[in-house]
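As the next step, I needed to go through one protein, both as residues and as discrete backbone shape codes, included below for the reader:
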Amino acid sequence: MLDKNGIAKRISRELRDGYYVNLGIGIPTLVANYIPDGMNVVLQSENGLLGMGPFPFEGEEDPDLINAGKQTITTVPGSVFFDSAMSFGMIRAKKVDLTILGAMEVSDQGDIANWKIPGKMVKGMGGAMDLVASAKNIIVAMQHVNKAGESKLLPACTLPLTGVRCVKRIVTELAVVDVTEAGFKLLERAPGISVDQIKNATAGRLVIEGDIPEMVL
């Protein structure tokens, strides 16, 4: 199965030249390290940056230069800083071509829960609510199962929702699946992972058609 960097590397294959992309907190931030050479992709951070680069090397961090998850980052030539009002204006005006988010749960109808676990203190939903409501395309980067081995791809989310029927594709340590009217459609297997393993790890409806190829990373 894939580690977090493997998930990010597979998602980088979804990028297209000229895309404006927002990377959510967690695994999605790692996608910045795997943008194909020669591809022009502009990364947007909702705390006010257009033109985010990969993570800095150790010792080269600038504590004043962070992403929405408070991680130190780099910029690329031509990057620009602005206030939150302009940042969310870009998002709400659907200027972002692709949003990549982490999730705690996704339903087989495309609902996403990624902001709150009951009983734990959180500051609020943050920018996720705008991103799921306004993005042209949403890909989720997440673990297929939790630490107890229980599926996180469900018939219905049990945690408070961030968005409804908004997720298009999910990449996990086990598989790539699309959200369809019939449920999760299995597109690819992680290297060394069988279809039966994915079946056993998926609580929601799973559509399997024909031979399922392994991911190309």
